[in-house]
Amino acid sequence: MTSTDAPTPVFEAPAVAAPAALHGPVLAWFDRHARDLPWRRPEAGAWSVMVSEFMLQQTPVVRVLPVYEQWLARWPRPADLAADAPGEAVRAWGRLGYPRRALRLHAAAVAITERHGGDVPSEHAALLALPGIGEYTAAAVASFAYGQRYAVLDTNVRRVFARAATGVQYPPNATTAAERRLARELLPEDEATAARWAAASMELGALVCTAKNEDCARCPIAELCAWRLAGKPAHDGPPRRGQTYAGTDRQVRGRLLAVLRDSPGPVSQAALDAVWDDPVQRARALDGLVADGLVEPLADAEYRLPQG
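RESULT FIELD:
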């Protein structure tokens, strides 16, 4: 066979590192570099963890911190929030965005008060049965508040696992069964270690293995990362979903809610009309807020935050 007849080399993806090889470096890195966040402190209870998890969905820590602190000062236990009107939760939510989370957190507080004597349940199934609690939040509370062994898959964790274990730049747009299996396979067997691993892998994605500016020089598992070892191949899956805000119904909803939050009483239609020029989009946004239970229509063309 001549040199020109030599077969084309076939690229072989690097072998996935054994889970135990990943655990030690990531946990040691977390011990040195974890942020001092109030919901991670020893004195933080399960309610504090739950509030933080609701607020941190699609919202960065820097925006969450002041609202979280005010929230816990006002409603230190689920029963305190449950005794207040849901509209007060929406008001206190401020500009965190996606305000339906405030209504869901209020509904969860009511259920915790009525079903569990005011204590956030520790059982995963009981957490999952609460209003507004999905797969991720139930696992996060069980893990971070109660030290249990659950795979906690947020965007940061999914990105770390996609790169380190499967050699791709980004995970799928929606969580897949394969990702859940991988997350379970990567969990340490010991409950306490598994809970620390859940927090550590999340922190690694938030601080080092970020979406756009990964810092491999600071990564404790760079030498084991399948994506880096493969030469960091570019994402070739479905386009990443970008988030737009300016000019959208979300922006209009936010402006309408801001007027209602700032008012101690009902707000007139005329006051709401002043926040956006396009009457069709404004009406659509207001109708959506009413349909979502974030706004209550009253007589005489007035509106208010929900009272119950």
